[in-house]
Amino acid sequence: MIDSLSENNSFTGKELSEKLNLSKPTISHHIDILKEAGLINEERNKNSKLYSLNYKRMNDFIRVFSDKFKR
């Protein structure tokens, strides 16, 4: 699943819920947190919202996080 999440692959909340086997409210809650952190992008498509990973921000986060544990 994670392999299919990229800037070129976007998913609705419903699709994420089905793929990750999590409830829609759980997905919605986590999407809000990830959006606030800038780790995912949201795009409107007609009546749907599409979500994709923000790879630049994700790589920055991973770099900073790993640097903290190298000490």
Automatic annotation (TrEMBL):
- Pfam families according to UniProt: HTH_5
Please list every transmembrane segment annotated in the UniProt record, as residue ranges. none
Molecular function per GO: DNA binding; DNA-binding transcription factor activity
- Domain of life of the organism encoding this protein: Bacteria
- The HTH arsR-type domain is annotated at 1-71
SUPFAM superfamilies given for it? Winged helix' DNA-binding domain
Q: Which UniProt keywords apply?
A: DNA-binding, Transcription, Transcription regulation
Q: Which SMART domains match?
A: HTH_ARSR
Record-given protein name:
Helix-turn-helix transcriptional regulator
State the organism named in the record.
Inconstantimicrobium porci
